[in-house]
User: What shape does this take?
Amino acid sequence: MNEQKLRSIFAEALGVSESIVVDELAYNSIEQWDSIAHMALISVIEEDFDIMLDTDDVIDLSSFAKAKEILGKYGLSF
Assistant: This one.
């Protein structure tokens, strides 16, 4: 459930189809995921999962797979 929710967040924040939101999707690998979209993505993740990401985690969140790994540190399971 959390994985689908996160996939939807990525798709919405980046303005892409959910079908391209796979583990290998990485920051700057698509035109839509630039620094501005990254901050929008972080904002929606924090709001929808009711968490506050550390600055290091914001910087490290470099792919869909990494996002799941980082959110695991906040008690979310995928």
Q: What stands out?
A: The domain at 2-72 is CATH 1.10.1200.10 (Non-ribosomal Peptide Synthetase Peptidyl Carrier Protein; Chain A). The two ends are 8 Å apart (CA to CA). The longest helix spans residues 35-49.
